[in-house]
Amino acid sequence: CGNAVRGQEAQRTTVIVQQEAVRPQVRVQQEKRLSVTRAERFTPFALGIVGPLNLPPSDYDVTVLRFNLLSGIHNNLSVIDIAGLANIVRGNMSGLSLGTIWNEVDGDMLGMQFSVLANYVGGNASGLQCSLVNYNDNLALTTGLQIGVLMNNAGHLVGAQLGVINMAESLEGFQLGVLNVTSELRGIQLGLFNIATDAPLPAMILLNMAF
What we know:
Blueprint (H helix, E strand, L loop, with lengths): L1 H38 L2 E9 L2 E3 L5 E8 L2 E4 L2 E7 L2 E4 L3 E7 L2 E4 L3 E7 L2 E4 L3 E12 L4 E56 L6 E8 L1
Parallel strand pairs: 1-3, 3-5, 4-6, 5-7, 6-8, 7-9, 8-10, 9-11, 10-11, 11-12
Antiparallel strand pairs: 1-2, 12-13
């Protein structure tokens, strides 16, 4: 009886050892399949129809050109993005984005955005934005120029804002508008009302500056 028990324990030990030996091989095979899948998620050209209806699907990165009949959604995008209504990028965008109504980049943007209604960047933005409203995340860095007919908004701005209402958490540069607002000013505000809460004169008419 004792020999039988010891034999069963030895068999179980052998099975466990074999399973542990196979697991690293399974992980390697899974990682290989995952790397192949990621490599296949790039496309030079894409077509957006509306919302999640895209060719190829939305989880692809577009490396050259995307044309959106109404709107398009993809992961990362480079070079040129054109839309009948809206361009939406869930990751990062570098290049030129032309949206009749709306441009949205949830990650970082390096390049230029032009639209009629609004441009939005959720991460850091570097370049030029032109629209009725340009709105960038209040915690991110914006470097360059925002031209908003109605309003510009940025977090830490290194550059300039031109619009009726200009708002930045901190400013190193220039604001030109009817109402200019910032918490930290290292530059010039030129407008009818200028507010810089950390400046020697936190509210000024026509001109305010701090360096």
